[in-house]
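Input/output pair, single chain:
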Amino acid sequence: MTRRDFGKVAAAGVCTTAFGAKINSTIAGVTIGAQTYSFRDRPLDATIAAMKEVGLGEAELWDGHYLPKDAQALKAFRRNPALDQMREVRKKFDDAGIELYAVTYPFTKSLSDEELKGGFEIAKAMGVKYITSSANVSVAKRIDSLAQKYKITVGFHNHSNKAPDEFARPEDFEEALRGASKYLAINLDIGHFTVAGYDPVSFLEQHHDRIIVLHIKDGKVGGPFVPFGQGDTKIKEVLQVLKTKHYPIPANIEYEYKGGDTVEEVKKCFAYCKAALA
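Output:
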């Protein structure tokens, strides 16, 4: 298929891959996908198969699915990533009809400049515009210079741990983004945000222009994480804001509560999101 032919197909509203149609998991204008951490109990190929079974067509790749587990090998990989291997990872998602939207890479203050650069080389090889990162607030300026160079946006991921130099409070995002370029942004985990005692709906409405992706999970204020609909997280309200205000922000399911079979639990999460958008 030539580039012109592909354009005709795309204009007709049909998106294809080498092995079939792209999976469409956009509900009422809201893209529902998955952070592949949801399938942390299985390797990458089985994770992609699981996403196909659930019917999720957009993914944010967890670093545990592509980084080496051995500490020494990990350090070497960060300095000199296997870029052909990363391109092959992208191809697996493409072949499955799943859009690889973002890749996770932890930007911590202990990393050298060379290791920080490795995250951008990985994202570039995978052909994604976004990196999501559990990072330290103090490393933001170092990341910004690289993000501007590569023209890849980094979304900082929050947890419920309010320790110094961690992303948890609204003020932590404000500090990291103050004076930063447009390439620094937010990956808002609405479950962690709720557990930490904050309201994800008001934060989303105030900062939607700097949020590149949401992590959807349910939790009680103060913890723990629970099945969707059993906690304090305003999942339905968040999804309705995306729907009614047409914010182009993917909502990625992150299955983290204690449950049974992973695929069956993610199916339940997806069903809950569909009902919330009805």
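The chain has a mean pLDDT of 94. Residues 63 and 97 are 21 Å apart (CA to CA).
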